[in-house]
Amino acid sequence: MMSQIIKVGMADLNVTKGEGVLTTLGLGSCVGVTLYDPITKVAGLAHIMLPSSKAIRNNTNPAKFADTAIVLLLEEVLKVGAIKGRLVSKLAGGAQMFAFANKNDIMKIGERNTIAAKKILKELKIPIIAEDTGGNFGRTIELYANSGMIIVKTIGRGTKQI
């Protein structure tokens, strides 16, 4: 049986169950946050662009921000049958794509996204069991709902599994 591939765009999220595969392209400073229930095979993926919805006026898209996207993703996986106490998370992305002359933290979007995602997951008591974050290169990920496995693809750096 062919797996259904579901694309998750930038500032977007989606869930699947069973044989579905969630994929998102071009995670640079963005962070891909996954939630997975290994018993029900429910998987969710959010492509987060920014750490906090509170710092921006145009915050109408909750999937864009770590603080709102992860909560929304949790609600969506629970609707499809996941049990909160069994959920685990994996993270990918959060790169520093450009070098800046000043060392201003405001420009470290990737690092700030990763820190924000970890903080929210900790508050929700969802353990992070694997991550592939940081560096200065983009990633494309595929999350397989039948196993919870994530394939991380990077240009010039090959493919790995987390």
UniProtKB/TrEMBL annotation:
<keyword id="KW-0145">Chemotaxis</keyword>
<comment type="similarity">
    <text>Belongs to the CheD family.</text>
</comment>
<dbReference type="Pfam" id="PF03975">
    <property type="entry name" value="CheD"/>
</dbReference>
<protein>
    <recommendedName>
        <fullName>Probable chemoreceptor glutamine deamidase CheD</fullName>
        <ecNumber>3.5.1.44</ecNumber>
    </recommendedName>
</protein>
<keyword id="KW-0378">Hydrolase</keyword>
<dbReference type="InterPro" id="IPR038592">
    <property type="entry name" value="CheD-like_sf"/>
</dbReference>
<comment type="function">
    <text>Probably deamidates glutamine residues to glutamate on methyl-accepting chemotaxis receptors (MCPs), playing an important role in chemotaxis.</text>
</comment>
<dbReference type="InterPro" id="IPR005659">
    <property type="entry name" value="Chemorcpt_Glu_NH3ase_CheD"/>
</dbReference>
<dbReference type="GO" id="GO:0050568">
    <property type="term" value="F:protein-glutamine glutaminase activity"/>
</dbReference>
<dbReference type="GO" id="GO:0006935">
    <property type="term" value="P:chemotaxis"/>
</dbReference>
<dbReference type="InterPro" id="IPR011324">
    <property type="entry name" value="Cytotoxic_necrot_fac-like_cat"/>
</dbReference>
